[in-house]
Amino acid sequence: MYEVRFYKGNYKWRQIKANRDKCIAYIEHHFNASGSTTTGYAVTVVGYNASGTSKAWGRWYANHIGQEFRIPVAGQGGIAIGGFSGRGNGNVKHTNMPAILLEPLFVSNPLQAEIVRSEEGQDRLAKVLAGSIVEFFPKGGRIAFSVGHKYKTSRPRDRGAAVNGGGTEADYAEIVMEKAKSILENYKPTPSEPIIEEDEVDNDVRVIKNGKEIWSNADLDEDDEITWDEENRTLYLNTK
Ligand SMILES: [Zn+2]
Question: What is the C-alpha separation between 92 and 157, in angstroms, rounded?
Fold first, then answer.
């Protein structure tokens, strides 16, 4: 029920293409970084022009990352509206669908970088991301993914911040997004109620001999009469 497409090129161009493809949601994945090794919080950037859905979705994501990794959540309840002094705004503002820019962990923080570099951590990040999409877009549809920094025509070698212990922000963001894509494309909703076949009627008659069914009448419906005559040891089936 979900189809995930990766968009490449400069940020504005990615958004224009996602609009044309009628995507229902847009996500750009980054990791945060700072000069300090102890800074570490989750935040989601939404545009100045963000809809209520973008804001609620961004808050849901940041707060679930906060719970999952037991880290603080920053911004206004988890979201930075319009980015950090405008940075990040252009990455989402050209979309005509709900759009968020993820900054789940700090790769300059050794403890958080370890999560980013580990497969287990990547799986957990992907699960929260995919879960947020299922939560806010339960009917399914086409989802636009954008790997931050990577694949820009203007600066093709940009990979974002260096990750403590090795690797780059963009390469790990891409790994997490690939995992989230696979979760979403294999997603099947669990029915909230058991499915009852409309034609299923509990009025069948079976004769079991030594544990084996030797006769049955599955044609009977609810209105047919079944009478067991105890005295004559006879079963009467009266169909209407
Ligand atoms: Zn970045």
Answer: 21
Query: If you measure from the C-alpha of residue 69 to the centroid of ligand 1, how many angstroms do you get, rounded to a whole number?
Result: 20
Query: How would DSSP label each residue in 147-198?
Result: ESSTT-SS-TT---SBPTTS-BHHHHHHHHHHHHHHHHHT--PPPSS----T
User: For the residues 118-146, what does the mean pLDDT come to?
Assistant: 98
Domain ranges in the chain are 2-185, 205-238
Span from the CA of 53 to the centroid of ligand 1 (angstroms): 23
- Cα(64)–Cα(103) distance, integer angstroms: 13
What is the average pLDDT across 210-224?
A: 78
Distance 58 CA to ligand 1 centre (A): 16
Report how far residue 21's alpha carbon sits from residue 187's, in angstroms, rounded to the nearest whole number. Answer: 21
Q: Say how many Å lie between the CA of residue 209 and the centre of ligand 1.
A: 72
CATH topology of domain 2-185: Aminopeptidase (3.40.630)
Q: Give residue-wise pLDDT tens across range 14-37.
A: 999 999 999 999 999 999 999 999
What is the value of pTM for the model shown?
0.80
**CA 126, CA 182: separation in Å to the nearest integer?**
9
